[in-house]
Input
Amino acid sequence: MTSFGKVVEYSAKHPKPANTTFSYGTAGFRTIGDTLESTLFRVGLLAALRSQSKQGKVIGVMITASHNHERDNGVKLVDPMGEMLQQSWESYCTQIANAETDDEVVQVLTSIAQTENIDLSITPRVVYARDTRPSGPLLQAALEDGLAALNANATSYGVVTTPQLHYFVRCLNTADTPVAYGEPTEAGYYEKYGQAFLRLVDGRSQPSKLYIDAANGVGAPQVRKLADTLKSPYFNIEVRNSDTETLGKLNIDCGADYVKSNQRQPAGMSLEPGSRYCSFDGDADRIVYYYADENGSFRLLDGDKIATLVATYLRDLVSTANIDDLEVGVVQTAYANGNSTSYIKDTLKLPTVFAKTGVKHLHHEAERMNIGVYFEANGHGTILFNPSAVSKLQNATPQTPAEADAIQRLWNLRDLINESVGDAISDMLLVEAILICKGWSLAQWDAAYNDLPSRLLKVVVNDRTIFKTTNAEQTLTSPPELQDVVNSLVAKYPRGRSFVRPSGTEDAVRVYAEAATRTDCDQLAYSVAGAVFDRAGGRGERPDEFL
Ligand code: NG1
Ligand code: ZN
Output
């Protein structure tokens, strides 16, 4: 096929490493950066094809490995509305990445084009960006070769956060339509979210300084640009862990994942009671807050706390706005702390559902709700207003100034959030706006409910593909009988809950446990992890610290 005429020649420059299998998982391709050159080239080809399959809409490609080690890298595709790649195309990604020869690459392209009935005469349009990783430039060059091989109209956004790239894609594809999302530029991004923030906080008391741990990643320069754009006492920040130049610092002892996993402050931050802190991850799509209480103890405000804060605020606004049948719901994963789920159901009296791990699953569940708040406990999430919510807001006829104000605030909130994907910078502005409007400290926010003690462990096994789950990943259907063992262990502990699932991003099995006390929780976590190790081919050291 002539459309693929240049592919073999270009592909020969980016040979696939022998004996390596790539897989497009929850977060796209993710592995040691240096092994990904052929994959990036091929993702370029596929991004072009995907654009053609969408009649030339812009497709995004983000080169990042998020919170993972600096030597890792990865890549994921962004669909036209700024959402994650449609799931049915994930297997095409895996297929093309694993084609053994240059000719096979062309065969895979040809077969996808036929299956999807793609008009290859359409000019593909693709935009791409990368984070600060050292392997980024090399991988970007390979991607550019893939795009050139299919004559794509390709534009680089340089080094930006993952959610910024999602935002650009959505802006480009909605330009000049009734749902135009904004200017597809960095300046447009800061302007849109920054102005919505200022509209919400106007006239309120100014907050104290917010210390931001940027994980020594791309969030550091980007959040500073936001502050430079805003120049507002409402956004009084100091960025720490902002060294994106020195090798070996990205995500090390800092960042949202470190803070959430270790339940402690990052390097470079000593916590003063009364002060306010947050951490981004390496590509700035996750955020967690924290502070020291009056005894100096570390207190974490994770994705569950953010979800409950946001849901409470939205629920109250919707109630004041007095619009019929406009409902707020919350989507969580099984990793959500049990007390957050009880709080949403029993105190807020809002509907809540569990989705499988990975934001694309949460996103789809949230789309079914009028106003869907979704967050993973690790701090990755956002809010979606579905078309029915938007038309209810448009058609609302406020009867009082309070109703009109609440409706205006809902519009401003919608402008403040990145609807395409979880975004640390936009989520931070959202949290800040709510805290400013409520006049709350972090301790007042934290007071809504107390987390149950929880523990997340990793077990390395010979073959994690034998682990199969159901019930939003909370119940194992394979290996046989392992779930019965987990159930009998859980039954021993008051408020015990535990589940086992294979990781979608690492070669390991994750064990989560929570219970009424720290001791019970740890015993439960380690006994379940021990059972997994013994009965399902554990490798290396047995996890038995507490037994
Ligand atoms: P896996 O490795 O499948 O557990 C992790 C996170 C997810 C999600 C993805 C993508 C946990 C327990 N898991 O997935 O929530 O963020 O990475 O980055 O935090
Ligand atoms: Zn990330």
